Amino acid sequence: MSNAVPNSLSLAVDIPFKGASKNDTFVLVLGQTGSGKSTFINKAIGEEVATVGHDIDPETTTIRYFVATHPNHSDRRFIFVDTPGFDDPFIEDSEILDRIIKWLKKSCPSRIRLIIVYLLEITQYRNDHMRAGMTPMRLCITGIAENSVLATTKWNLVNQEVGQKREMALSMTYGRLAIQRFTDTRESAWNIANYIPEVNVVKVSHFRRKLSTALQQRPQAGFLSAMFSFLF
Ligand SMILES: Nc1nc2c(ncn2[C@@H]2O[C@H](COP(=O)(O)OP(=O)(O)OP(=O)(O)O)[C@@H](O)[C@H]2O)c(=O)[nH]1
Ligand SMILES: [Mg+2]
Predict the structure, then answer these.
(1) Whole-number Å distance between alpha carbons of 210 and 70
(2) Mapping DSSP to helix (H, G, I), strand (E, B) and coil, where does residue 115 land?
(3) Does residue 188's CB lie within 6 angstroms of at least one atom of ligand 1?
(4) Which of 144, 175, 189, 204 has its CA at a distance of 20 to 30 angstroms from the CA of residue 25?
(5) Is the CB of 85 under 6 A from ligand 1?
(6) pTM
């Protein structure tokens, strides 16, 4: 496949992607720290391009991109964007979202195919998602729920029956979102990245504006939940 082109090696700044074309598909990979974002990207690329964390500290601290061509369509370029995880003890969720907004501004043409892959560990209880990951998730997909895939990870660490119950609970709560299992293979990563066959072209400035407005209004939880209830 895939002429994977890692960006410059770890620098403590978010390096924008230069040379994007309107035919590119951007896959923004988001989720709590440790949810498996870098692992997902490595599987999609087919190489260990993103550093995976194996201890309790968050691993990815900068936004990094990795370029691949679609396994079956050599003319389709996918830009996988690895991001610092939410719920990081050292970086506020709002700072991460703010950096994502800035990165998109510097890296993307005005209209692009933008997919959000939001990873959730199936090993977590539903209440954990409600407390932590779900709030950033709602913020992230604001405005592009139809281009977002909620992908559950770490299925090999959970009793299948328990996992299925949690998956069902997720789909009852977030039924309007595409919910898919990531099974830790390259094929599975591409099935998720490709899950939305006709990705709507997104006006990046519109998405950024919605995201930053939602971020500013975040403390008003009641207002926010009302604002997002239409999504689900
Ligand atoms: N069993 C299992 N472990 C996984 C899976 N995906 C990731 N892991 C493990 O989870 C840990 C964290 O994975 P990462 O890919 O670094 O997670 P991340 O979301 O990039 O983490 P941060 O960069 O810290 O935000 C590593 O030990 C991975 O090997 C999975 O599908 N199954
Ligand atoms: Mg990572």
Answers:
(1) 30
(2) strand
(3) no
(4) 175
(5) yes
(6) 0.89
What's the token pair of residue 183?
């099974």
Q: Which residue has the tokens 């892959």?
A: 117
Q: In sequence order, which residues have a C-beta less than 8 Å from that of residue 62 and are 6 or more positions away?
A: 10, 11, 12, 13, 14, 15, 84
Q: Cβ atoms within 10 A of the Cβ of 43, count?
A: 21
CB 152 within 8 A of CB 122: yes
Rounded to the nearest angstrom, the distance between the alpha carbon of 176 and the centre of ligand 2 is 27
Task: Phi first, then psi: give them for residue 20, nearest 5 degrees.
Answer: -70, 145
Output the residue whose Cα is nearest ligand 1's atom 4. 154
* 79 residue type, one letter: I
Which of 121, 110, 174, 191 is CA-nearest to residue 152? 121
Per-residue model confidence as pLDDT tens digits over 114-144: 999 999 999 987 655 555 556 788 888 888 8
Domains identified in the chain and CATH numbers? 5-229 (3.40.50.300)
